[in-house]
Please model this.
Amino acid sequence: MKIAVIDDSAARAAVIEEGLREAGLTDVTVLIDRRGVVAELERLSPDVILINLENPSRDMLEESFALSRALSRPIAMFVDQSDEASIADAVDAGISAYVVDGLRKERIKPVLELAVRRFSAFSRLQSELHEARSALAERKTIDKAKMLLMKRRKVDEPTAYALLRKQAMDGGRRIVDVAEALITAESLLGGDA
Amino acid sequence: MSRFRIGFLPLVDSALPIIAQELGFAKQEGVEIALVRDRTWAAVRDRLAYGQTDAAHLVAPIAIAMALGLDRPATPIGAPFMLSLNGNAIAVSHVLAEMLGVGIEADARTVGERLAVVAKEEAARGRKLRIAVVHRYSSHNYMLRYWLAACGLDPDQDVEIIVIAPPFVADAFAAGEIDVSVVGEPWNSLAVERGDGVIISSTSRIWKRGVEKLLAFRADVLDERRGEVEALLRALYAAGQVAMDPARTEDVAELLSREAYIGLPSPLIARALSGRLVCRKDEEPAKLRDFLVVHGEAANFPWRSQAMWLYSQMARWGHAKPTEDGFAAAAAVFRPDVYRSAFAGTGAVLPGASLKVEGAISEPLGAGSHGGRLVLGHDRFFDGRLFDPDDVFGYLAQDGVGR
Model:
């Protein structure tokens, strides 16, 4: 089975491609760039096209698939109505699939399910990464505020942190918010923050 | 509070649900609207079909294509409320604007016939003009084809019609990928401001009452949440009255310009709302009458004859079959029954009929109605043709389409 993966995120496409290959589906082509995608698909003539739901090229591709109806291998979206549930899962995960006419459902379903799992895993990884990044940014902000306090109040680091924490607890705010307010105030007042 | 997730594309004609939510009309009706923005019609459609949204701001023919199951499994759809009429401009590259030598000052016939001459010359040189529309099943595509054909071009042979989603049209001009586009605002104005496009006409000049965006629901949602749906429609109607008020244009433009909605500067958005479009960079705006109509003169009423006109064009261009059943299925997508029950006793004007001859009104005309005086505005096609919903096959035969 020949599969094309179209995704404007190269990283996500790689994750999906890897999953398909691990499952023994080795005839996989990844297309990232919007330009030339229609010509590339015509050349490849894939059986299944997996594309991220939000891909900007979808309206354009659907026009070319509709035109393919005149060809020997027409492509349509989710041709098999008997499996609406797995299609709905795919849409929930953020994937759309287009399938060449006549391809049997039992052959499409595992591909779609695999793509859904990989897509969801990628989203999870991304949100973990995002959390890790923002945790790091928060740590940096707090460190900066501590340095400010140490300099201005001539205190040591544990005391500076205790000051921040007390202010946060008294005000019902997060330490990082207090730290940020402090840095902003310092910079507004012409300090070196 | 009952909640509706409504999918939309960043376009000025998505104004009503945004106004209804932001200015409190939804809340007054006990409804909360959560807007879900996408960049392609395919994504808006899929979210609606598979339940990620409850309703969608949708180009009317896509709703019909969904119901008919064109290129995808059929999804029963009901559209009880029109969000807009027209609002699309026809823009060209600067190179083509120079070649044409006519533009916004001329009528649709003059511009179309000149475009036909230039398109044929270019095709003879082996370079067909590339024209972008926003979707295969779009009013843009059908209005364009109607216009070109009436001006002597074969849209399938003499030019190349391609599809580009609205937010990418201005970029396509900048990249030199297209010669012409038919797209909603503010994407034409963006191309003009960047110095990449010139507006030469508008769909409102092709058909005065061109059916454009509707609010689409899955039919099961429409049935199961009927009372809530009707409350939502009343909120949209109230929003329409604000959108129509020239004194509020700036406020509305400001609201729509927010990052979560259109995300472009409000002066660009105000152009479509006021019907005053800057057609070429640094020139004075041109006043386009009824460029975009989001309310008034029963504009929000889903006339079944308008769905049937769209279907006639789908059949004309080979997108759907010219059958009685097809026309009936397309007409059934539009739900005037829901509209009437939502507005019964509210003072809103309710047309007595659900079908009318399209293109027959050249002067504002009183018509049979309940709850006030209904005045129907101009609805002429630029070539003067009439569409009689009782003789759809006669209409198709005029274009050489047989049953």
Helices of chain A lie at 10-22, 37-44, 58-67, 84-93, 105-153, 157-171, 175-188. Chain A touches chain B through 23 residues (CB under 8 Å). The longest strand of chain A covers residues 95-100.
